[in-house]
Amino acid sequence: MNNIMNSGLSIVRSLLGDKLGGVIDWISNKNNVKSSSVSSLMSLAAPFLMGLISRRVKSDNLGVSGLMD
After folding, report:
1. In whole angstroms, what is the distance from residue 6 CA to residue 10 CA?
2. Distance between CA atoms of 31 and 19, rounded to whole angstroms?
3. Rounded CA separation 22/50 (Å)
4. pLDDT band at 1 (very low <50, low <70, confident <90, very high)
5. What's the pLDDT score for residue 66?
6. 6-53 per-position pLDDT tens digit
7. How far is 9 from 6, CA to CA, in rounded Å?
8. ∠62-44-50 over CA atoms, to 5°?
9. Which of 4, 5, 29, 49 is the most buried (most CB within 10 A)?
10. CA distance linking residue 52 with residue 56, whole number of Å
């Protein structure tokens, strides 16, 4: 589980960059959830979502422009 969390956090950091803390705080405040819980959920969800996107790209033979559409 820690490997998934670490890779997920890396994905989220690369996508959001220096805005990560602000996004986590915003979600936390809007939903009355601890920031650490939001961070954990985002870290768990990122590899799952990237897997879904990857499967879609492969199954539909999408390039960059197809993915953007």
Report:
1. 6
2. 18
3. 22
4. low
5. 81
6. 889 999 999 999 999 999 999 999 999 999 999 999 999 999 999 998
7. 5
8. 5
9. 5
10. 6
Cα angle vertex 29, ends 28, 33, to 5°? Answer: 45
| Tokens representing residue 22 in the block | 């602000």
DSSP state of 33: -
Token pair for residue 62? 């999408």
Helix, strand, coil share (%) of the chain residues, nearest 5: 85, 0, 15
List C-alpha distances in Å: 45 to 41, 48, 66.
6, 5, 23
